[in-house]
């Protein structure tokens, strides 16, 4: 195997696949990137056995072949070289030799045949989406995924694709994020899959807000996303996601229209003296004013008031302030709607101008 490549051309596929490489591997080869040179292209593959990312580059190939080398070392070498420099990569015995000007590197290799690759998806259902549509839905909901919940299906995100509709839902049992987008997609049968947390994070990194299209293929156990020269394949979580429609409150009777930045600043000030363990703040709604307060075991207290246009009944309810701030950070627009019922009922937070994004936050007893 021998090929010549510009530094910038090599850097992009390496950056695309590096997220799949775990720093602590159960198998040493999972710390490597698989390099396969054929004709006028080189394919790079990284995997942690649950998620696989492939990216290719068009290069001048002198001789075909395949091997694997330490992924992060190769990336660091590429980053360290000068811009616009040219690299020669050659497999020599059990090492890969890298030359660039007067710089030389030798990397240890492991056989390409030992690298675990996910088999080609069979009988997959495929749809085509705009990158911006999927990116928007994921970014609006990903923060609500659980991190290490024993209910493993919560440590991921639900993706649903029906006729003309894409929906992403995430919940950790204390809060729920829902985002729906209109699409031109018409799948043969409705698509419903739970993506693992790491896969969601990789998708967020790989796709942008571009209007370019991506192809999404799904089987019972795998989901694959093809965007330009990059392919991400991931195993799916086998579990039953909660019925999110039962969680979204429909009987709220108090609606507040608030300036998002003003509410965010008020919450941040009150949070300074909230208990570090529970992060609770109390919201008291009265005619014309929203009072946000917090205290801690040291008997310290913070009180902040925000003028609002509200003439309904009074109410008082406690929340984890981190959940509220996460929602405000994920929302677009100048204003936000806060819909409440009573101190024992979940709150619904939505953007001012549309109903396709909804956030549910459970109350706290303070």
What does this structure look like?
The protein has 366 residues and is α+β, with helices and mostly antiparallel strands. The chain has three domains: 2-114, DNA Polymerase III, subunit A, domain 2 (DNA Polymerase III, Chain A, domain 2, Roll), CATH 3.10.150.10; 125-245, Roll (DNA Polymerase III, Chain A, domain 2), CATH 3.10.150.10; 248-361, DNA Polymerase III, subunit A, domain 2 (DNA Polymerase III, Chain A, domain 2), CATH 3.10.150. It is built from seven helices and 25 strands. It has helices spanning 7-17, 71-80, 131-141, 197-206, 244-247, 260-271, 321-330, and strands at residues 2-6, 32-38, 41-47, 51-58, 60-63, 65-70, 86-92, 95-100, 103-108, 125-130, 156-162, 165-171, 175-182, 191-196, 213-218, 222-227, 230-235, 254-259, 280-286, 289-295, 301-307, 315-320, 335-340, 347-351, 357-361. The strands form four sheets. An eight-stranded antiparallel sheet has the order 6-2-3-4-17-16-15-10. The chain is elongated and about 80 Å long. The mean pLDDT is 94.
